[in-house]
Specification:
Strand order of the largest sheet: 1-2-4-5-6-7-8-9
Mean pLDDT: 89
Number of strands: 9
Distance between the termini: 33 Å
Strand content: 15-25%
Helix content: 40-55%
Largest sheet: 8 strands, mixed, barrel
Structural class: alpha/beta
Number of helices: 11
Low-confidence stretches: none
Amino acid sequence: MKTKTHLSPSTLIDLMESQRYGVEYQPIVCIKSQEIYAYECLSRFFTKDNSAIRPDLVYSSLHDSPLSLFQVEYQQKKLQLAYAPNKVDIFVNLDQDSYFSTGTLKDDNPFLKLFKGFQKSKIIVELIENSEINDAIMSLAMIDNLSKNNIHTAIDDLCNPQSMVSMAVIQLVEYIKLDRYVVTNRSNRNFMLLVESMINYARNTGKKVILEGVETAEDLRFAKQLNVDFVQGFFYQKQFKKVS
């Protein structure tokens, strides 16, 4: 079970009122061509003195207030789309609770309208793998709504030991993102048999696999051995010009 940590109410209120928000774009690289395939849009938050606040800390604090969660998530998505690189596909994370907090799954859902209005390139929405069964149920409804509107989806953090694997969700998404836990536990033979089975499943069903947490040349060699489609991590943030 994940341990939730919260910001103090005063810190959270100050952050929301001042909107000290930022965005970072991390390259997702084709393993064969070593060219940028897409960028993942990542939320960034800052204190008054410009120190970084962990995004997971912000979002875990916001879960106690669904409307506040929506407000911050929606402003972040607007920022991410506004400064997104031209002519390159982008991946955006979206919490199921944010999507449902507006009470609608129809065409008037604010996130759906925002995504459909984006013209620069294709958007792939990343669903977070969680440990709650209700999250999986909401993910299915969210995927269905997005797919009906021609928006592609991905499952994030797969193989993270604190996440629950929803086979129904995995079957519906176009992209599977393997958590960095795969890289750090590559010597665990039994675990890797499971990872390889998941990659084979993706290959046989036409899904694309992205390996996160690639930080060294050795990690890249490991990714090539796994035969994934794309890689992401600090190794490429150092090589490609930073977009933020």
